[in-house]
Design brief:
CATH superfamily of the largest domain: Vaccinia Virus protein VP39
CATH architecture of the largest domain: 3-Layer(aba) Sandwich
Helix content: 40-55%
Number of strands: 19
Number of helices: 19
Number of domains: 4
Radius of gyration: 25 Å
Shape: globular
């Protein structure tokens, strides 16, 4: 097999939370489907790169079986090495073309992130056909792609960069030349405030902060075909697949748009047509669509009672602490997210339930929240009535992006023990990567000191022992401690800094769901 551009410019240790099988299961249940149990299912990822998206799922669900396929031998080897170090037995990564893949058994979940737009038309058809042939009767698939109309203007810049870089042989030269060309074009606009200049500046700033793999594969690859949603739905239908939903369910909710948008589209019965117009309104440039085998009716009316099956996690915190005990009937409490998104709760019932949900921090069931809220705030309502109210509130807040719904509460602890333990896979990833995967399938950046500490967090070392490791790494030259630009060599200063650093890192690991029991 010859070297591919993905061998030369591999993807990093990245995850895609909205493609996680538990998230796909959640979407299926919200839309009244009966997807297979993700904890015991068969999972296929097409275009898996080094397996950074699928390997953490295999680590979390040992009773499920995982297969990853990618054309890049170099990336597959990297993933196989990680699998070996982690001791995983339920996952197989294969270096082969998607077009050559076959399986005697169907898969319950098929993940295809970052492939559809980046392959030639004939392979695209084969891909969708393969997904249909290998998907179980109630299974779910997810496919992501660059979307129109948002990618329309970006496509013109891609054409410009491709024209300019055609004569340069290496990816590094191509990327350097492409950035230089865009900067030249931007500088040539002078001080004008034209829409073209503003667009150039925005895209150049985006690319300056982008990883090399994103820049090269999204802008300088041979193939990159953006699609309108209705085009993807039609392509899928020709191969026997039906559109279920977007992985970002709140994006489908008309209540998140200006009133005139909802008024215009409310009478439309075609959900794909509604979403297509929403893409026009938002100038959307990327999509991740959930598909299933055609033939099963899809009821997209989300019943609030469905929320009782799930775990709830609030992104809200009250601006002022809510005191324990019976609340005034007319109480008003303002909440907000870390990003500043506000929400106001009115009345004792709403305030008590939201306050209790925010107190949990970790994912919690409706029953857990109701029992705790009823006791803490002396609510007079019955538990069934409270559960119904909480389900209705949680559904509204989910659609507003301020409550997260999960089918799996995740395996982590939110307290720092005397001898802290890091998530097993994250400890293995930290050996050769500055990004590790947390309990919520998010990629978390860690610095060199964090990597040393995380690898050592096997439950045998207390804070003092971890601080000693940091101090030794500094005195040996493996790490450098600077003060006013100069290396610190004083032993007492190094030890004090090491202790403080460990405390800071452990707090960060706790917040980022990287601690295990």
């Amino acid at each position: 097999m010859s070297e591919t551009s993905y061998d030369a410019v591999p993807y990093g240790n990245e995850t895609h939370p909205r493609t996680h099988i538990s998230h796909l299961f959640t979407i299926g249940r919200l839309f009244n489907l009966t997807p297979p149990d993700f904890r015991k299912g068969r999972v296929l990822e097409l275009g898996c790169a080094s397996g950074s998206n699928i390997i953490p799922m295999a680590a979390d669900y040992p009773d499920a079986q995982f297969v990853g396929v990618d054309l890049s031998e170099a990336q597959i080897r990297r993933g196989q090495e990680l699998i070996g170090r982690a001791g995983l037995k339920n996952i197989d990564l294969r270096a082969q073309s998607i077009a050559d893949f076959g399986s005697a058994e169907p898969f319950d979940y098929i993940i295809c992130h970052g492939v559809l737009s980046w392959i030639p038309p004939e392979v695209r058809t084969a891909l969708l056909k393969l997904m249909r042939q290998n998907l179980s009767s109630n299974g779910l698939a997810v496919v992501s792609y660059n979307a129109m109309p948002g990618w329309g203007a970006v496509r013109s810049l891609r054409d410009i960069m491709l024209y300019h870089t055609a004569g340069f042989p290496t990816p590094a030269e191509k990327m350097a030349q492409a950035r230089a060309l865009l900067q030249f074009i931007l500088d040539s606009q002078g001080d004008s405030s034209s829409p073209y200049r503003n667009f150039l500046e925005q895209e150049l700033n985006l690319l300056k902060g982008a990883n090399s793999n994103y820049f090269f594969h999204d802008h300088l690859e041979e193939h990159n075909q953006p699609f309108y949603l209705h085009e993807v739905v039609a392509m899928a239908a020709r191969e026997g697949l039906a559109y279920v939903a977007d992985t970002d369910v709140p994006s489908m909710f008309l209540g998140n748009y200006k009133p005139n948008v909802g008024q215009l589209l409310a009478g439309t019965n075609d959900p794909v047509r509604i979403e297509q117009y929403l893409d026009f309104v938002t100038n959307r440039r990327f999509r991740s669509s959930v598909l299933m085998r055609a033939g099963t009716p899809i009821n997209r009316s989300i019943a609030s009672a469905r929320i009782e099956e799930l775990w709830l996690q609030s992104l809200l915190k009250p601006e002022n602490a809510v005191a324990d005990g019976e609340l005034a009937p007319d109480i008003v409490v303002r909440f907000s997210t870390e990003t500043g998104l506000p929400h106001t709760a009115r009345g004792a019932l709403s305030v008590a339930l939201l306050s209790m949900l925010s107190r949990f921090g970790r994912p919690a069931t409706v029953a857990e929240i109701v029992v705790a809220a009823r006791e803490r705030y002396r609510l007079p309502q019955s538990e069934p009535e409270l559960r119904q109210n909480l389900c209705e509130i949680a559904l509204r807040l989910f659609l507003m992006r301020i409550v997260v719904l999960r089918s799996d509460p995740a395996r982590y602890v939110d307290t720092i023990s005397e001898r802290p333990v890091g998530l097993p896979l994250a400890r293995v990833q930290a050996v050769d990567s500055d990004r590790v995967t947390n309990a919520f399938h998010q990629s978390v950046a860690i610095d060199p000191t964090g990597r040393i500490i995380l690898q050592a967090m096997d439950g045998t070392r207390d804070r003092a022992a971890l601080a000693e490791l940091v101090a030794k790494a500094i005195t040996s030259g493996r790490l450098t401690l600077l003060h006013n630009g100069n290396a610190v060599t004083d032993v007492a200063a190094i030890e004090q800094n090491a202790a403080t650093t460990v405390d800071t890192l452990l707090s960060g690991f706790r917040v980022n769901a990287l601690l295990s029991a």
